[in-house]
Amino acid sequence: MTPLQHNPALVPPVGTPGPVAPARQGQPAGKPNGPSFADVLGEKAGAVQLSGHAKARIERRGIELAPDTLARLQHGVDRAAAKGSRESVVFVDDVAFVVSVKARTVITAVDRASMRDHVFTNIDSAVIS
Fold first, then answer.
1. Which residues, listed in sequence order, are joined to residue 60 by a DSSP beta bridge?
2. Chain-centre distance of CA 31, in angstroms?
3. CB burial string 105-125: b at 16+ within 10 A, e below
4. Strand, coil or helix: what is 87?
5. How many other CB atoms are found less than 10 A from the CB of residue 53?
6. pLDDT tens, residue by residue, 76-115
7. DSSP string of 95-124, one letter each residue
8. Surface-to-core class of residue 17, CB atoms within 10 Å of its CB (0-12 exposed, 13-18 middle, 19+ buried)
9. Per-residue confidence band for 116, with pLDDT thresholds at 50, 70 and 90
10. What burial letters (b/e) apply to 67-97, b meaning 16+ CB within 10 Å?
11. Cα separation of 45 and 70, whole Å?
């Protein structure tokens, strides 16, 4: 077996500076603006999200999502998660939210007027919050 030969094209000469990253256009060098990724992730990690379908149903049915309602929904999802639920229906006042507990995502929302004709399937728990 022959020893490897030195190829000057692959190895930079000693003492030369390494490659320099290009400067970003429109942003000064230094600390970036806004919150860090870790801060945003920490805020969003436990928050309940709304799926596109849920947003459409909430809008169409005129369901009011006040901060108090969202807090109670969040608390209900937290309680379901603590019991090991996967798919749950969380009742907040006169609204039933079908939630993927693991994904922390509201799948759909049904108000009292629409609840009469609905059957909730593939649900392993129910929470009254």
1. none
2. 26
3. ebbbbbbeeeeeeeeeeeeeb
4. strand
5. 13
6. 999 999 999 999 999 999 999 999 999 999 999 999 888 8
7. EEEEEETTTTEEEEEEEHHHHTT----S--
8. exposed
9. confident
10. eebeebbbebbebbbeeebebbbbbbeebbb
11. 15
The token duo for 123 is 């649900």
pTM: 0.66
Tokens of 73: 């929904």
Q: Which two tokens stand for residue 90?
A: 């969380």
Q: What is the CATH number of domain 42-128?
A: 3.30.2310
- 91: which residues sit within 8 A by CB, 6+ positions away? 76, 97, 126, 127, 128, 129
Do residues 98 and 57 touch, judged by C-beta distance below 8 A? no
Largest CA distance in the chain: 83
Domain ranges of the chain: 42-128
Residue of 80, 74, 83 whose CA lies nearest to 45? 74
- Per-residue pLDDT tens for 22-66? 666 655 555 667 766 655 555 556 789 999 999 999 999 999 999
